[in-house]
Amino acid sequence: MKLELLGGLSPKKFLRDYWQKKPLLVRGALPGFHGLLSREGLIELARHDDAQSRLIMQSQGKWQVRHGPFSPRTFPRLQKKNWTLLVQDVNHFLPSARNLLLKFNFIPHSRLDDLMVSYAPEEGGVGPHFDSYDVFLLQGMGRRHWQISAQRQKTLIADAPLKILQDFKPEQDWVLEPGDMLYLPPGYAHNGVAKDPCMTYSIGFRAPSYQELATQFLIYLQDHSAINGMYCDPDIRLQPHPGRISAAMLRQAGAALGKIRWSRSDVEHFMGIYLTEPKPHVFFTPPSHPVGEQDFAYQVAQTGLELNLKSRMLGKKKRIFINGESYTVGAAARRVLENLADHFALPMVENLDKESLALLYQWYLNGYVELSTTESMVF
Ligand code: SIN
Ligand code: CO
């Protein structure tokens, strides 16, 4: 299937030829797109302490970064040009932002990070840099001049408070208008400068470093592996140097540590928990007036249900993961819950199986899912 969003490429072709390989400029990726919120709307979001926001300013060649939350009074005081407000996780606040992310579901949700939105007055930008992750830069209101480079030279300005390339050598450039989009693979140098007051929507992906993965897996193993036995030395030898660690002790310890084992199933379990773990600043609010389980089932049948905007949900075979929790489910529940994980919502479902109903109701009470208020979506 060819996608206008990918400039007429099919997702398969995009993945084969561009994803993690080379940039793609798409004119009119989302025709008619002018953004999901206004400058004031973004400034309002930056007030929240659970929305991570940064203000980047440049004056006389010096960069400055401030971290939010910001009072709306901050902004009128700023210089007219040359600053940028960046707000992460906008998809945690706007249903329309999550719907935008769903358009990119040709990349698995396990790779999805967030929607970051920036506002910059004329000449604003965050400087030439590279990101470690794939990003789709979708232009909302206004125009932005993008310059990009495949340069290998990645030296950063030493005393800047953010990552700025010391020696940026642009190779290609374009002015993006509302609805245009630029895909960049990880490590591709870029610099975007606002030509007008402009807003850019960054659909960002996540990829853990192997070190991070290993560290988290070792933490996981603390609770998920058991090694029997205890150090013992009935045949201990007299040591002329009691202050030394004996080779026999090291041998025994090494053999015990060599018993640490894990299976594919442990890796699957760990990855599901790790990938759905909410970011540290994310909290869920239970409904203030929850309905009973029977009413809940009735409403799911009438209007359907949605994942809370902050929820992360994934599945693997019989395992369903939501917000760092893991559940093993039967075939009927698996079908229902996989549908929810794929689409972030469930259409009206009559006669929910008992297992799905019990889980969904528990998640509703936790604030992980919500009853839809509108008619069920059509997929
Ligand atoms: C921006 O939206 O100003 C910055 C996005 C980026 O360069 O990654
Ligand atoms: Co960037």
UniProtKB/TrEMBL annotation:
Transmembrane segments: none annotated. The keyword Ribosomal protein applies. InterPro entries: JmjC_dom, NO66-like, ROXA-like_wH. Keywords: Dioxygenase, Iron, Metal-binding, Oxidoreductase, Ribonucleoprotein, Ribosomal protein. Gene3D superfamilies: 50S ribosomal protein L16 arginine hydroxylase, Chain A, Domain 2, Cupin. SMART domains: JmjC (SM00558). Its cofactor is Fe(2+). The keyword Ribosomal protein applies. Residues 96-222 form the JmjC domain. One of its GO terms (cellular component) is ribosome. Pfam families: JmjC_2, WHD_ROXA. GO terms for molecular function: 2-oxoglutarate-dependent dioxygenase activity; metal ion binding. This is 50S ribosomal protein L16 3-hydroxylase.
